[in-house]
């Protein structure tokens, strides 16, 4: 059986634009909202405290007809060792036969699709005239989320940033300000200063079992979009539970995870507080909301991975990039 192997360098060589990933992720969300996606809640093991290795399978029907699974690890402790926080492999299968058609690096897929998912959510819940974005956690996701949000919001004039590691903040501002020369980048001393006055707040810190939540309601504007990419690590429960609108990328996965008793505890929204899945917004089943406090937990779902991987696979075939291997 021949399969296409796409390393990280091969994926980067494809030069896929963030806008294309956003389009693919939104399409997957729409199909999910239309009931054409099979995406069970991610299962995993936790070999070390605050570390996970997750299995994320998905089938996307409709006009896409794509199947795959991501085996992905998240180890916050790796950062101290000079190793990546996120690593793993992505596997695409032929839906007709089940045969493996491609294997690729999962860290690239995860980085881009996660930022893209935030952009899709913000497209339906954000104020188009937003001027200030706040980013807490300035690693890979802090970068990717800003890149994706900047594709949607063309009036951004200031980016306020914070990370517990000052050196991370300096690198982030140096790198990102060169991409968005029309924006002012402000290094903040604490989370409260970072989110004050922001139209959009996105938190991208490591996911931990015992979070010390620090972004409080009173620090936020009345009209704000608050997106958690880091589960419940940063936003205090009332930011989510008392929001005018609370959404998640997959209510089934969110509620299943909450039921396990580790994440989304101590006042985080329960089933009756969920306004919509993002897929329902994309499919036109729920109305977009752009005023008041709009809060979202985006855990990351496998449909994003399969859509991004399928896009990469098609681009690789078109450009002749990658290595064919026998497995």
Automatic annotation (TrEMBL):
Q: Which Pfam families match?
A: OCD_Mu_crystall
- Record's GO cellular component terms: cytoplasm
Q: By what name is this protein known?
A: Ornithine cyclodeaminase/mu-crystallin family protein
Query: What is the organism of origin for this protein?
Result: Acetomicrobium hydrogeniformans ATCC BAA-1850
